[in-house]
Prior knowledge:
This protein is an all-alpha fold. The protein has 1 helix and no strands. The longest helix has 40 residues, at 22-61.
Amino acid sequence: MQPLSAPQEIPSASAGRRSVSAPALAAGLAAVALVAGAVTLWAQYGTAVFFETIAAGLRSCF
């Protein structure tokens, strides 16, 4: 019997490496900064004050 298809080569890990674009990197860093700021506020003020601060900020924006 003959195989239905030829064996496929598995590409190496370095062949599929992609570089990250500058806007994607900037968006990722901004997201990390926002999460770090939120954690810092939560640690400093506690949960009740933290959620009240977030709610007040959202009310002022809208």
